[in-house]
């Protein structure tokens, strides 16, 4: 045994002998591989390739630009194709051209790919311009959105808030004066309206701070289940991040006149005489609530040619006289009270264009009568309308 060579001895002991591999990639190739691995991780998480677009997260846009460059760089294919199980490189680049990519030197190419190191440094082990983990996590949570499958439930809420903002019923405040995040809150983040639809149970983070998982709906029809503290961080870091205040009905009746007040007004309730099958079937339940400072008859004179009135004649089924009334606030209040019972109906106007009237509700007449009385005596704030019961219930 003493005469056996080292390799023969190891083989006799059942130990496989393999040559020690040495690094075979240049620093540029290592960086290309690392950049492509980032893209592959994105595909694994999202199930699709990164895409361009102003509405996309900055990371996704960077990955999309990087992928275009790699697709156009034919010399990189032998290096990257063995890793490309999703077949990303087989697709033609959407923006880059092969000539442009091949013409770049090492540093220019790496800069285009967002992978360049600090000038004068070739140390690929040194990370440059990397944001702290917490900041990256907050951005990723916001970016990881999925389609909101029941967005039709929330779209009327966004429309109502937008109307409230235009009329002054709600306003926006710089986030930070009040940094709380609660179920039912509205915010503006990244230029989009955000609604906190659900909040899970509160738990403690490793550093002892309270947190909770949210269901957040975005006005573009997407949603995210990010954490409460992630949403707070994102709102803090967004210079345009805003809190949307809760709706405040304000003084509907009083002694002080306001610009939109009318001295003597009328709340009117209409019933449609339309021959539309759905309207005809539920005629006794479908009502339009409006307010005017003039004569109701004048207001509805052209109902048959106005899509707002379902292109049909109407009949007045109830009126209520009021004084010193703020018309805009009262109309918004009625719409908020009965928003869950809003009629979802699309008709064609005289020119064949689709119209979606927003001021008709599936509400019994006696409930509207009760709403007017509750508004006048102030008890409307203590209850909400339950469409399943067709009645007001205590909050």
Detailed description of the structure:
By secondary structure, the protein is an alpha+beta fold. It folds into three domains: 104 residues, no CATH class; 110 residues, no CATH class; 134 residues, no CATH class. The chain is 32% helix and 20% strand. The chain has 13 helices and 17 strands. A seven-stranded antiparallel beta sheet has the order 1-8-7-4-3-9-2, with helices on one face. Strand 5 and strand 6 form a beta hairpin. Helix 2 crosses helix 3 and helix 8 packs antiparallel against helix 12. The longest helix is centred in the first third of the chain and has 20 residues. It is elongated, with a radius of gyration of 32 Å. The termini are far apart. This is GIY-YIG nuclease family protein.
């Amino acid at each position: 045994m003493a005469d056996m060579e080292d390799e023969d001895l190891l083989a006799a002991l059942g130990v496989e002998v393999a040559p020690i591999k040495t690094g075979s990639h240049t620093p540029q190739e290592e960086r290309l591989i690392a950049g492509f691995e980032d893209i592959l991780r994105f595909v694994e998480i999202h199930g699709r390739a990164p895409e361009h677009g102003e509405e996309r997260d900055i990371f996704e846009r960077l990955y999309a630009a990087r992928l275009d460059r790699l697709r156009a760089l034919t010399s990189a294919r032998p290096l990257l194709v063995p890793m490309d199980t999703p077949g990303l490189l087989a697709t033609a680049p959407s923006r880059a051209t092969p000539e442009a990519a091949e013409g770049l030197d090492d540093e220019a190419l790496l800069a285009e790919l967002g992978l360049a190191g600090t000038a004068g440094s070739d140390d690929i082990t040194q990370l440059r311009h990397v944001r702290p983990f917490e900041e990256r996590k907050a951005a990723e949570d916001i970016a990881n959105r999925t389609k909101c499958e029941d967005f039709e439930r929330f779209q009327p809420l966004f429309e109502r808030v937008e109307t409230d903002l235009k009329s002054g019923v709600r306003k926006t405040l710089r986030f930070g004066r009040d940094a709380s995040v609660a179920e039912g809150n509205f915010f503006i983040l990244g230029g989009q309206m955000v609604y906190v639809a659900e909040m899970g149970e509160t738990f403690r983070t490793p550093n002892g701070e309270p947190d909770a998982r949210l269901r957040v709906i975005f006005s573009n029809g997407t949603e995210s289940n990010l954490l409460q503290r992630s949403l707070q961080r994102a709102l803090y870091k967004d210079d345009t991040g805003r809190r949307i205040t809760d709706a405040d009905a304000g003084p509907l009746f009083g002694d002080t006149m306001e610009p939109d007040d009318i001295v003597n007004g009328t709340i009117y309730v209409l019933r449609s005489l339309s021959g539309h099958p759905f309207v005809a079937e539920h005629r006794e339940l479908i009502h339009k609530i409006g307010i005017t400072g003039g004569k109701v008859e004048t207001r509805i004179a052209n109902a048959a040619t106005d899509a707002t009135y379902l292109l049909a004649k109407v009949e007045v089924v109830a009126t209520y006289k009021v004084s010193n009334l703020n018309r805009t606030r009262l109309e918004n209040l009625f719409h908020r009270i009965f928003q869950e019972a809003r009629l979802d109906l699309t008709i064609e106007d005289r020119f064949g264009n689709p119209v979606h009237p927003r001021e008709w509700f599936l509400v019994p007449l006696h409930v509207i009568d009760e709403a007017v009385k509750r508004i006048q005596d102030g008890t409307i704030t203590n209850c909400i309308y339950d469409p399943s019961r067709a009645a007001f219930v205590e909050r």
